[in-house]
Amino acid sequence: MLHGIRIIEFEALGPAPFAGMLLADLGAEVIVVHRTGAADTPGKEDRNLLDRGKRSITLNLKDAADLRIARALIRSAQGLTEGLRPGVMERLGLGPEEALALNPALVYGRMTGWGQNGPRARQAGHDLNYLGLSGALFYAGLPGQVPGVPPTMLGDLGAGAMYLAVGMLAGLLQAQRTGQGTVVDAAIVDGATHLMALLLSMRGQFSTDARGASLLDGPHWSRCYACACGGHIAVQCLEPKFYAIFLDRLGLAEDPAFASQFDAALWPDLSARLTTLFASRPRAHWGALFEGTDACVAPVLSPAEARHDPHVAARGLWQDSGDSLQPAAAPRFDGRQPAAAPPSPNRGADSAAIRQELDDGGWL
């Protein structure tokens, strides 16, 4: 879908390379500029799953000759992404002002935790810090417990990489329409705050000052339960019609205690009862009991287990690259079969070819 779009990605950690992988999965030509170093010794493989489908060139951005190559790459591209602290690219002479002077139609994507300005802009931080400050972490956990640690995909990827990718796509559309580039300031704290819009749209059902008292973080029908085998089962039957199926399968349809689904005063006691019930049988029992129903119950699987689930397997969501599991590209497009996951390049594998292309194309 993005064939013909070239993105230059400057090596970073976490969300920025994930955004680059997503754009590469969608067909963009993504050239990642890896830093020169020990990993560049001949014959040494240094592959990263997040580099799949990309091309790699190694450059020392403090070297004048390599900096000239980096500027040529910028001139040749439609987009650039970087995930460094504010000010780092400027000190290298590759900040937005310099880059847009080289290529006025460039979409310059910046991925940070705190954003390009504000009191914390230059402070260190990680996924959990950004979620905490934004308000999003407030709902992560059960009543009476400390907030949990969500998977990194919530902050780094959901609130970070995805917003960078969307921002890049919006900027590319504008550049195609007007010839004018732009700078995308994608901050995880911004994205995490924005992601809360759905919860805030459900006013009256979500508390903004009490944990465990909201529609999805307090009820007995919206949580995970431990099973006898040590595994877990995930329950979230929000709608009454699904809740009714859930109770029927458990043999609780006639139990008056469970009749008032939305009575928050009952949630602690009902949660305790379900905790005891689910702990009485293994996860496989509960998975089989709810299989094929609309009770909104599913087992909590590891990636290795998930690949063997019939639905996950039917959609080919996990792919075996030979040395590791990796997820298939998403989303899908009508009439196009998802391609097999491409390999990740060794660092610098395409250095010579890219340099030659820049020379042949007149970018140097």
Characterization of the model:
The radius of gyration is 24 Å and the shape is elongated. The protein has 14 helices and eleven strands. The chain has helices at 15-25, 64-76, 88-91, 96-102, 127-134, 153-178, 188-195, 197-201, 240-250, 267-278, 283-290, 303-306, 310-315, 351-360; strands at residues 6-10, 29-35, 55-59, 79-82, 107-112, 182-187, 222-226, 232-236, 297-300, 318-320, 325-327. Helix content is 37%, strand content 15%. Residues 40-44 have low confidence and may be disordered. The two termini are 29 Å apart. It is of the alpha/beta class. The strands form three sheets. A six-stranded parallel β-sheet has the order 3-2-1-4-5-6, sandwiched between helices. Strands 7-8-9 form a three-stranded antiparallel β-sheet, covered by helices on one side.
> What is the terminal separation in angstroms?
29 Å
* Uncertain residue ranges: 40-44
Structural class: alpha/beta
Share of helix among residues? 25-40%
Mean pLDDT: 92
Order of helices and strands: EHEEHEHHEHHEHHEEHHHEHHEEH
Strand content: 5-15%
